[in-house]
Amino acid sequence: MPEILYNSFRGHGLPGAEMFPSQNAEAVAKLLAQCPVHAKTPLVSSPKLAEIAGIEQLWLKDERARMGLGSFKALGAAYSIAYDAAASRPEDWSKALNGATYATASAGNHGLSVAAGARVFGAKAVIYLAHTVPEAFAERLRALGADVVRAGEDYEASMDAARVDANCNDWNLLSDSTWPGATGPGSRIMEGYLQMAAEAATQIPNEPSHILLQAGVGGLAASVAAHARAVWGDAPVILVVEPAAAPALIESIRLGKLVDTSGPVSSMGRLDCKTPSLVALNGLARDADVFVTISEEEAENGLCEARRTGFDSTTSGVAGIAALLAGVEGVGADAKVLCFLSEGPENG
Fold first, then answer.
1. Cα dist. 145→37, 122, 124, 346 in Å?
2. With the CA atoms of 126, 129, 133 and 137 taken in that order, what torsion angle do they form, in degrees rounded to the nearest 10?
3. Residue 97 is part of which domain span?
4. How far is CA 196 from CA 61, 76, 90, 139, 227, in A?
5. What are the residues facing 241 on neighbouring strands?
6. Which of 156, 182, 208 is the last residue of a domain?
7. Span 286-319, pLDDT tens digits
8. 41, 176, 271, 320: which could form a disulfide with 339 (CB 3.0–4.6 Å)?
9. pTM across the whole model
10. To 10 degrees, what angle do helices 184-192 and 25-32 make?
């Protein structure tokens, strides 16, 4: 059974918290309309998975084809870069950011999103990869017009290199996390994720009783939770799901402050984050009801069941579903659950 922690900060947030996730989904939709590959993703019902989970209904917001990039991450960078493009009041959006460079580190979908977003608006992208990231991913980035720089043996080292070079070259550092003194770009990326939440809220036929949200640094979870509270108020029970190997959010909630955590490498690679995003943590402390960690075995079991019922993904992409299938305390037979299928399979 997954470990759970009930959130004692629900409704008011952590002491001293000042910055929270945006709820302005209308602004996001307006800007994303300028992106030629932007389109809604489907919300689908899965009676088979609902039966396996022993619940009444299960809806999945399927992000596997978002903007042709294969994950929800496309929304964050696309919106953030479009926001910068709009500031120049361009006549030709494809040239709005000529001369600008966006740098980031990535081990997956965020780098693809930065590369694609930069190309749409005429900017350059420089993506920093650890030496452990497969060359096939580097080739995908180059195919989108990005420059690829190898730096360090892990994500943290590659992000350090991106930060140094961005500062030296006057580039825009576009991290998908936030920390004290650096909340702007990461918060805007989170704001982009509101599009996914807003779509789901209009597509779902009934108000969900429970929403399960997978989390790495917490950007997806915090944005969806903020929008859910704006639309449905206190009614849905919101559960945040992390790997047991990377319990950054649950431990921060347990201790009442942002903390660094440690643990072994998780197969849920996109969620294997040992330090939460500051703004995401603030939002989830206010909006989430329960924090959950799942084991590697529970994640793999969830992926197997998802594949068997026609929803191929990764252990990261189905982590919310995996927690549901593992049996989360308080989610009963009459539950009407919303989950997010956040990315396609690794070879998709």
1. 16, 10, 8, 21
2. 0
3. 73-182
4. 8, 10, 26, 28, 10
5. 214, 292
6. 182
7. 999 999 999 999 999 999 999 999 999 999 999 9
8. 320
9. 0.93
10. 80
